[in-house]
Amino acid sequence: MKAQSRLFFYLLLTPFFLWLLLLVILPHIDMLGIALREQTAPRQYAFSFSNFSEFFKEPLYWRTFLRTAIMSIVATALTLLIAFPVSYYIAKMLRGRSKSLLFLLCLIPFWVSELVRTYGWMILLRETGVISNALQWLGLVSGPVELLYNDAAIMVGLVYTSMLFMVVPLVTVLESLSDDIIEASYDLGGNMWTTMKNIVIPHAMPGIVSGCIIVFMMTLGNYLTPNLLGGKDSLWFTEQIYTQFITRFNWELGSAFGILLLLLSSLIVWLGLKLTKQTLTSTMAS
Amino acid sequence: MIPSIAQPASLRWTYRIYILMFYIFLVAPLLVVATFAFNDSLFPSLPWNGFTLDWFVSDTSERLGVFSDSAMLESVGISAFVAFWVTALSLLVATSNAFLFERYDFRFKEFFYMLMLLPLVIPGVILGISILIASNSFVNAVDEAFNIEVEFLRPGLVLVILGQFAFITTIATMVISARLRKMDRSLEEAAYNLGATKSAVLRTITLPYLKPALVGAGIVAFLMSFENFNTTLMLTSSDSPLTITMFDRLREGSTPELNAVSLLLMIVSGILALLSVLVQIKEAS
Fold it and tell me: Where along the sequence do coiled-coil regions lie (chain B) (predicted)?
């Protein structure tokens, strides 16, 4: 029996290793290797940091990188601000049927492809779109207004796309907060703000952190939303990676960009986990 | 602020209006996509020219409906083909992973579990390019060493399947592990005591218990594959899946045909989502 059990163990370990090693770990090591080389002659390569120094020398590259990071942080903050009251309403103000209904309603849009969702925003925001027409009909503007192809449009799209990944952890964590504790806070003379500040938000912190980490990662790595809603000047870092790989065929520089994006993403995740003393495993589980 | 604590009516109503506005925000883009699929116009925008089904069934060069657009239909077929293989492969590996992590204790288990979660943390675009690089290195190395061209590992459907499989497996593993963790081991022990073999226990006890999770994970995997864009974009070639075809059309300037495709997509994913919710409810009871 013991030997058989060992055999089964290795039988289960093999696909796990093949999957992770061949499709995740080795490709990333290979990418790092390519990022750290430079072509010296046809088919001749040497170790070099030139791709990374190129990134810092060319303002377009590092500015795009910085812009992507800042926009992602803003999008994460906005998503949290919008999602928190909604999650609180679902978790604490509703009971039974209406609660499950509203929660499910929150999830439904996200079963739909991101492409379709973004397309919806294009129809709403463009010059001949629904909102432009509505504003004209209301007499608020005199001619068609172009609401698409600017940073605000990108932001709307990013917040919309991220919403689910904030609402789910927030609802989960807020549901675990007992009503009695909130009542006790009021009984002790607290008001809405002090209760929020001292009871609800500290309790919700693990959910807030999980939500923010996931939303930040997804926003940083997003390609579709900035590309379609931001137009030519969207300047998102993933577009820069795509350009280097597919258009310019400069895989060395593209790989370096990929490594930098990965580093930024890991750094933020690590910081978030450190600040709140959580682990990746617990964050992903919620 | 909970229902049992009285609050001014103005505050309660402000809160309700906020929630209402949130749901309008959530539904609006989907609603307009669906509505304009039926607009009798060449552009998916106002004014509303009346109701038509042209964008589904028409077959003229000016108005090509979905069901007559062979390029679009072909890309649906490609997406379904990719999604089928991704689902099959990821369910297989995920089930194996779930048993590995739930039934065995071994050294560095925590570390391996973290590695297992890694694909979720890697942005899709980067996962795509890394696999592109690795497969290219592999093809070149084989070419140099044996003078054999491994054509199928060039950008194309095999790479798309591998790329999606790489991260969807993690999600499927999490779903199946969660169910396996809740299983009452005494059921299996009882079967062993009654003289059942290992494979009989797996077939008659463990797998039937896991079935809801397998169905749920399968639906999620299929949908995620069907709708994936970022990883696919980096690995695809001429046979493009649906999301890539739609993206290209969208940039060229869209007709309401795209709305019609989107509406059909929404209906299919809606049905699949409902199915997975039903499976979960059944699992809970």
Answer: none
